[in-house]
Amino acid sequence: xxxxxxxxxxxxxxxxxxxxxxxxxLYAWLVARRAGGRFVLRIEDTDRMRSDEAKIAELxxxxxxxxLDWDGGPGQDDGTGPYRQSERAASHEAAFGKLLAGGHAYPxxxxxxxxxxxxxxxxxxxxxxxxxxxxxxxDAAGRAAREAEGRRASLRFRLPPGQRLAWDxxxxxxxxxxSDDLGDFVIRRADGSAAFLSSxxxxxxxxxxxxxxxxxxxxxxxxxxxxxxxxxxxxxxxxAHLPLLVGPQHAPLSxxxxxxxxxxxxxxxxxxxxxxxxLLRLGHSGAEDGYHEVAAMPAQxxxxxxxxxxxxxxxxxxxxxxxEALLRCEDAALVDWVxxxxxxxxxxxxxxxxxxxxxxxxxxxxWCGRLYGSLEDPDAEARSVLAAAGPAFFDALLAAGxxxxxALVTAAKGTGAKGKGLFQPxxxxxxxxxxxxxxxxxxxxxPPELIRTRFERARALSTV
RNA sequence: GCUCCCAUCGUCUAGAGGCCCAGGACACAGCCCUCUCAAGGCUGGUACGAGGGUUCGAAUCCCUCUGGGAGCGCCA
Length: 464
What we know:
There is one protein chain. This protein is mostly helical. Helices cover 44% and strands 10% of the residues. The protein contains 19 helices and 11 strands. The protein has helices at 19-35, 53-66, 89-101, 112-124, 140-148, 196-206, 221-231, 262-268, 272-281, 315-328, 335-338, 347-354, 361-372, 380-389, 391-399, 405-413, 420-431, 439-445, 448-462; strands at residues 6-9, 38-41, 105-108, 154-157, 164-169, 173-178, 186-188, 211-215, 238-242, 245-246, 311-312. Strands 3-4-7 form a 3-stranded antiparallel β-sheet. It has a two-stranded parallel ribbon with strand order 1-2. Strands 5-6 form a two-stranded antiparallel sheet. The N and C termini lie far apart (81 Å). The mean pLDDT is 91. It binds one RNA strand through helix 4, strand 4, helix 6, strand 11 and helix 10.
């Protein structure tokens, strides 16, 4: 029993993943999981630029972090591997031989300089810069002459002239390109390596991929890849092209957008659920309101609910989902935020106390300083609150003898303080700020000596 | 230069001619609750890029403009 749908994510391990890549991966995974189909992860490290293991490991780590898994891919075999493109060269070669034999490909002897000159002159004449096809008409003698010159040939795919190349895009609807507008494209470089356009398509066909979901920067590649696959005697997959993501200034989200790289998001403390919930809504309206666990997202995803306009990444919304994710996650998932910044053994308790009042790792660090370290200088508002409480207030706290919440509140009430007039100076004296978690658990965390020090400090400040 | 795609609150979006003086979510403001903040509850403000058509009627259809995105590689 074979599954009807197979989708894939095919990143090249150059640079680190940004939100746009991650969204493509998530969506491809969601369609597969929703349909009960296969999801394949294929690493597109070309054989010429063999990628380093660290980048591949990082890629896998980022995807796993989000909650994605794959039926075929690194560490998981479904019989359609290998899953590194650099290990599929033999299959590419076989395909090139087949195309050559069928007259669908021809050697091209043009050098990069010649092609560049051709492009420039086309541009000057205000014409689209595409390959003229001059090597397509070479006869045996012409080829021999060029080889005698020592030229090394690349291989180009011969597009059928005067045709309308059409397909039904699952997101964008009916699409159509004129073959004459595209130009014959390189499928194998002069150095013998397979070019993206061909290897990507050949692998999809060979791995039984039935749905290619990718960014809309690939739409113009689609007609070429479809004819190539058909020339190989296979059936092209269906295609779905997502509008790209744009960043803060309507600018495209690029790999340079460091703040939006999965890496830096993770380092700042964003949780996978937060990122996934944001991505689920960027350009997609199929999900019900509210937070969804990644595992439950496939039911919330619908290809037909994808928009056609570029979507804008908004940090405020990411923060909202971060808040939601924070309320739901295990305390244990957050201990890394405070490790080494609390007294030994208090990591979990600290996290449990803080989690509703912090958003990111930096907030946790700031709070660890307040609970166990030293306080910053008070601002004008803080000074006036302390002064209003007066030294007698803090004398009473110091005299209480105990440092638990009930004892201290009782002692403070003895001075006649109540309500805001009680809790504001108490909180301020202890934590240096007017906002934060409930005082009872905060007091339970702080060392008694530190509590006394803080009261003494507040008392001194209150007399100024 | 040429080709293609897109255009609703600050942001993500609902809306496929009358149900829309435009709905939801986030953010924002006010109130309630509360030891603070958050959470929760209630209330509120904010949008159909511009101009022309078509129609009894347009956010929805057509054209132009403007704005944004993508592509035109021996990059992926």
